[in-house]
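Q: Sequence in, structure out?
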Amino acid sequence: MPGSTVASRVSDRLAASAEKNPTRAQHVALAIVLAGIEESTGRHTWRQGGDDIAAYFRQLAAWGYPLSDVERIAAKLPADS
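A: Exactly. Output:
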């Protein structure tokens, strides 16, 4: 598609997918939000992380994701025994 950006093409594809599968739209939206949060994390997140990033990692743990030692620090959780 001449003149269109990658973002607009991806957006168009996501919109088409959501129209075909309305219940899947929430999963797509959540994936986009989580990807944005992940993009904002970096090598030093565990040192600089605030309450928002701590809440994010605690939520991942609540969903069953096993946190690494560094992620546990960022989540402000005690070390695994």
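The chain has a mean pLDDT of 83.
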